[in-house]
Amino acid sequence: MVEIPDSLRSLFSAPIEERNGTYVVEVPSSEVDHEALSADETYRVAVLESPASTESSMQQGTQQSSSQETVSHTPSGPPVEEGEVRDVTIETVGDQGDGIAKVERGYVVIVSGAQPGDEPTIEIEQVQKNVAFASIVDSDPRTL
Fold first, then answer.
1. Where are the alpha helices (DSSP H) in the chain?
2. Model-level pTM?
3. What is the C-alpha separation between 116 and 119, in angstroms, rounded?
4. pLDDT at 77 over 90
5. Ordered structural domains, the chain, with CATH
């Protein structure tokens, strides 16, 4: 499994743009809207290589995430619970080869055996402050 530190607050994909001789990475407004980040704070940024072939599926994935089961959570806690079943879209792959999906407030869910663009039904197995680990309970019908 991918080792994600508890301090991870957000994971998203964004292009780097040149503006007047400097380079800018735009933070999606949803990251601030869902309280993953605050506009007046400073954050450390990690850059992960993203193959060009997964860019379109990552962009679609952030727009197509849906939950099969609605669970109410406090805004400060994780937006998932152990045993919860939901549909996700895998946005990218972590260093260990596991799929990475984002749910409410930019919360990261690591899904073993998933690939970018997959839309599996998953079950949350382990929940930590900033990341959850899940297994696939029903594969993406498009990949069968």
1. 29-33, 52-64
2. 0.50
3. 9
4. no
5. 1-144 (2.40.50.140)
